[in-house]
Amino acid sequence: MTFFWSSWITIFSIMCWAFILGILLMVLKYKPELEEDGTTGHEYDGVREYDKALPKWWLVIFFGSIIWGVAYWVFFPGIFPSKWEGITTVEVDGKTLPWTSKNELYSELESNNKVFTDNFEKNILAKADASGATKTLASLSEMQATMRHSEKPPADLQAQIDEKVAELSPYVEKLAENPNALKVGSRLFLQNCAVCHGSNAKGATGYPNLTDNDWLYGGEAANILTTLHNGRVGGMAAWRDQLGEDGIRAVSEYVLSISGNQPGYELDKAQVAQGEAIFKEPTNCVLCHGPDGKGMISAGAPNLTDNIWLYGGDRETIRETLRYGRAGVMPEWQTKLGNERIMLLAAYVYSLSDRTAKPVAKTTTAVATMPKPVASTEKTVN
């Protein structure tokens, strides 16, 4: 709040308080002249006016509310909040801070989260034979607190945090076999992830299916944890300016020729050959999708030789992807859910995924890249 509004509201509040107090005192002090019968002489429709003292209980409540208002100004930042913080404090992240509605919210969230984490350790980790995660979680929380509070955190601190996150992966696998953990994980998924991936986790156009074995950034427990903690930002570049429409059509024909959904299409062999040459140029598609077109987990580049497509694998959709590119974001959940809930969520997603071997591509032709955009996210929660 600016100083102007802070001052204006403060002055207006004090004026209202003083006005009400002044009216009350004036009424109490005022003594009208009375008739012999004790009335003021005013009469209307047969009703005569007496001058009786105000009820004590009413005066106590009225004066009490005025005193309470003054006390509120002392305890809370009600007068010039930019200058007076009040004497009330709350505990946030281990620090004693002046009361504000924001700080109070964070304090209550921490208190509620403490109840959750205690229950998580006693009734979920212990029963899933994963109590070893407690020490790692404590170290991880300390590192994250250092990262939040340091203006210039150590250069390798984020790498250390990532290592600690990866250390939780064996415990996530154990949680994925525990019914209680999966029950909580499913609730977290429905509350936070279903809006993009669907309540059945099968995704939609532009949002990955989490129940198969095709993953842009890897489907192991460590990969899923990393995705949930840090989020993902994927991007498939637009190629229409570099390749032109003829190049777009040639490349899309080549991608179609190596994909698992080529049956039913009559391919133009001349365009396939032209597209292959464009793909294999070092600065084009091969850079991300690799020489065999099977993609790279490190880059989040999809496999172009199967029939699993994030935005669609028909000829026209592939052309559209090449022309305009794709972009997608998987948000980070570390600051929103916390480490314990992320473990439960990762365990649930891990339990949904197909752990069988990934099917072999239907074609062995070498490829470079493109469509099935590197967009959206890892095949994980969004």
Descriptors:
two-stranded antiparallel ribbon; 15 helices; 382 residues; mainly alpha
Regions with little confidence, pLDDT below 50 for 5+ residues? 360-382
Instruction: Give the structural class.
Output: mainly alpha
Provide the β-strand percentage band.
5-15%
What is the CA–CA distance across the termini?
35 Å
Count of DSSP E strands?
A: 6
Strand order of the largest sheet: 1-2
Shape: elongated
C-alpha-based Rg, rounded? 34 Å
N-to-C series of helices and strands: HEEHEEHHHHHHHEHHHHEHH
Could you explain how this protein is built, in words?
The structure is a single chain. The chain is mainly alpha-helical and 382 residues long. The protein is built from 15 helices and six strands. The chain has helices at 3-29, 56-75, 101-125, 133-149, 157-167, 169-175, 179-192, 194-197, 221-230, 240-258, 269-279, 286-289, 315-324, 334-337, 339-352, and strands spanning 39-44, 47-50, 89-92, 95-98, 232-236, 326-330. Strands 1-2 form a two-stranded antiparallel ribbon. A two-stranded antiparallel ribbon has the order 3-4. Strands 5-6 form a two-stranded antiparallel ribbon. The protein starts with a helix and ends in a 30-residue tail after the last helix.
